[in-house]
Amino acid sequence: MCMFCAAMPATIAVGAHLQAKQRQERREAEERGQEPKRQVPAMAWTGFALVALAFVSVLYHSQFDG
User: Which residues in the chain show pLDDT less than 70?
Assistant: First the structure.
């Protein structure tokens, strides 16, 4: 498995962890009665990273002759 294909599951795992962390922080802020701080959408960036990895993977694998 190439490095780009191997990085996809790791990227999904990191994105899921970040999403869960953001949800927990938001829930805790709402329980305290505070306004949740504005955060970068983790799943949007995870999706962007996955599309980029898939694109680079296709380019990498298309370079082989066999």
Answer: 65-66
